[in-house]
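Troubleshooting entry. The earlier prediction with magnesium ion gave an output that would not parse, so I re-checked the input for stray whitespace and re-submitted. Clean input:
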Amino acid sequence: PAYEALTPRTLPQRLGTLPALTDRVGPPDGWDVTEVGDGNLNLVFIVRGDAGAAVVKQALPYVRLVGESWPLPLKRSFFEYHALIREEARDPGAVPEVFHFDEDQALIVMEYLDRHIILRQGLIQARRYDGLGRMLGRFCARTLFRGSDLSMKAPEKKADVALFCGNVELCDITENLIFSDPYFDAEMNRHTAGLDAAVARLRADLALKVAAQELKLDFTTRAETLLHGDLHTGSVMVADDGDYRVIDPEFAFYGPMGFDIGMLISNFLMAYMSQPGHESEPGDRATYQDWLLAATDDIWSAFAEAFSRLWHEERRGILYQATLYEDQGHHQAADVALARRLDAIWRDALGFCGVEMHRRILGLAHNADFETISDEARRATCEARALALGTAAIHGRDSISDMGALLELARRTG
Ligand code: ADP
Ligand code: MG
Ligand code: MG
Ligand code: MG
């Protein structure tokens, strides 16, 4: 059957005999269907019934945020499905369980995260989540390490690179929206009134324009590992009982390890920079800001720790073979190689962190952390500081030596 977008009304007729749904939700005559998609691209339905609930996510043949004038392939659902099952294998329990995939209808049936909210909303409401930074850091380490040549055999890795190479249009969005549009007067850009001077300064920074394209070159050419590709705080769902999940990997692609972790850190730092805009009394978000920086610190330290453990225990791919190091008694050389890798990932992450900040303030897809600051002048102040932090992160790729230094810079800028 040809693709057709679902509606809450047609979903029970069309999917009412699907065991993946009836097994978990019950018979379709008792189904209650609501569409909750708040994202930029796809439809998301919650299907509730006598026996339980499930989520049906379906791609649309265009960009939801923009409309039918911007077509986008349904195949992104295929990449999301393949990324989800790899993430589940590499970090079990970190993503919603997948129950069914229908390529023709571009739909995925998955676990309904019923106690969860989108992390970004939680951060705007100043909620704390114990162990969150550590979970996300471990997720990055496990998925990035196990999806790379450090872990995979050549045939498996190359076949997978070929598979995800097809995700052309979503990569194209990243390539344009993140790495180019913020640095010139691109058609779909917008920014808060009051930022004109800051924007003019940023666009006049020629070294920044050079650096952004160097980062883009890294993104397009360095197929180090399978990236989530859209790992911001709107792609994490959190429950108060400490269950945290990563969702929405439709941008999955082989790229540099620092991309996911840099985007994640960037979104935590934007949550930090936006807090003054959500104060009801001056300073009443200060202790929450400390928590955000501690969580950001945890992301990197848990990442480095878990990555190091995997380096020592699971280096079974085509790179840095134990035959060259441990088997020769050269354990120290393996440690030196690890330290150099972590340092390279850190420097890449700084650059990706910076461009992500710029594009969320100047490009098409803004984030709610800043957008929900209703007072425009306050929003512009927070955003101008975040723009400056992004620029400093990009220019500081070689000088911001560790997370402590980045957090200190955020404190001084914010
Ligand atoms: P998009 O690709 O359009 O951004 P997302 O996968 O991010 O779509 O989902 C959009 C929204 O749907 C999320 O912000 C979240 O509120 C909800 N959602 C998505 N997946 C689930 C799930 N498995 N359980 C509960 N809610 C979900
Ligand atoms: Mg999303
Ligand atoms: Mg979204
Ligand atoms: Mg998405």
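This one parsed fine. The two ends are 54 Å apart (CA to CA).
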